[in-house]
Amino acid sequence: MKIAIFEPYIEGIGGAQRVVARYANYLQLKGHHVEIFTQRYTPKTAYKGFEKLKINIIKPTAKNLSFLAFLKRFNDFDLRIVNDFPSNFIGIRNKNTVWICYSPKRYFYDLKEHYFKNADLKGKILLFLKSLLKGADILSAKRTTCILPISKTIQKRVEKYYHIKNTNIVYCGIDCEDYKEGKYEDYLLCVSRFETPKRIDVVIKSMAFVKNKRLKLYVIGDGKEKENIENLCKQYKNVEFLGRISDQKLKELYSNCLALVYVPINEDWSLVPFEAGASGKMTIGCNEGAIPEVIVKDKTGFLLDDITPEKIAEKIDYLGLNKKEAKRLGKQAKEYAKQFDWKVLLPQWEKLILDHAKKD
Q: What is the CATH number of domain 176-340?
């Protein structure tokens, strides 16, 4: 089958782009003709998984005109797979379109007030201009052949905001064999994109309440809040800002950390706790969004209600005093992560994608 995959840009190493590269390579290895269409591709900073794929640049390439790039017809393919907004606009004018839905765009829907509240004047104007595309977003959902949400949480959002029911979930995964279990040293990890909904600031501030002075927090990631996060880290002696690091270095840190701390607002889905789990490490998480799908309460990690720095600090201190418990939960997290290994998931993806394509 001749398959076109659409992604707005390929420039970083975020979770969603890793997923696109992983399933695109799998479909190619299974004998399908696969091509990627994107507005912008920066090989130097992009995830290396795209190197063996054919990348096509579509115009206009300006970020603010991205919606125009995905309103074109692409008739030379049997199937079109779309990913993040606004690549889903492909479904408006093209049949046989499958949307891998990481979430209905959050600044249109569930996090609209959050983004507006935390934006400066320029940001508020930009959010207003983006809101003009909400109608086209809803239209694309109605015209797309099928939507495949990536979690139960996103399945509920698709039903709530697009009024589309009975969708099939395609879970995103990791390659468990790439991660190794090591020691349980006196540091925790905060691994995330630097955006306000990730609540990285809350995690950093929790270290002010940690009583065990041996314990440290390493903050890892990149994003538009980088400067703010870095400056906040400097205020705490037991916090070290590492920023963007190599995959190899990250895996080493996972291998020997005590635990991961991950408490985003109503997260869509996350691979980070699975990466920690595959390394034999548990996660201090939050009881909201898709995190309860990723972390099994009191079996692969902790799920906290009403997140505060004090609550996170309490769990950090508990693990510092109970490393055997951290190890026990980490072992269970490792077993749980195996269910979300790409070896298990990708054949399911191929079947769902092709089955829906045949129905159109």
A: 3.40.50.2000
Complete DSSP assignment for 200-253: HHHHHHHTTS---TT-EEEEEEESTTHHHHHHHHTT-TTEEEEES--HHHHHHH
Confidence of residue 348 (pLDDT cuts 50, 70, 90): very high
Instruction: Cite the DSSP H helix spans in the chain.
Output: 15-29, 66-69, 90-93, 112-117, 121-131, 134-143, 152-162, 200-206, 226-233, 247-256, 272-278, 291-294, 309-321, 323-337, 342-359
Residue 82, φ and ψ in degrees, nearest 5: -110, 155
Question: Is the fold of 2-173+341-359 the same as that of 176-340?
Answer: yes
pLDDT attached to residue 317: 98
Cα–Cα dist 331/347, whole Å: 26
Domain ranges of the chain: 2-173+341-359, 176-340
CB 188 within 8 A of CB 219: no
CATH superfamily, region 2-173+341-359: Glycogen Phosphorylase B; (3.40.50.2000)
**The residue type at 291:** I
Determine the 3-state secondary structure of 69 from DSSP: helix
Token pair for residue 127?
A: 């959010």
- Contact (CB, 8 A) for 2 and 28: no
* Residue 193, beta-bridge partner list: 222
Tell me which residue has tokens 């440290």.
Answer: 216
Mean pLDDT, range 179-194, rounded to an integer: 97
Mean pLDDT (whole number) for 308-312? 98
Peptide bond just before 60 cis, omega within 30 deg:
yes
What is the tens place of the pLDDT at every residue in 32-67? 999 999 999 999 888 888 999 999 999 999 888 888
DSSP code, position 291: H
According to DSSP, the residues that pair with 190 across neighbouring strands are 219
Backbone φ/ψ region at 261: left (φ over 0), alpha (ψ -120 to 50), beta: beta
CA atoms in the 13 A half-sphere facing the CB of 168:
14
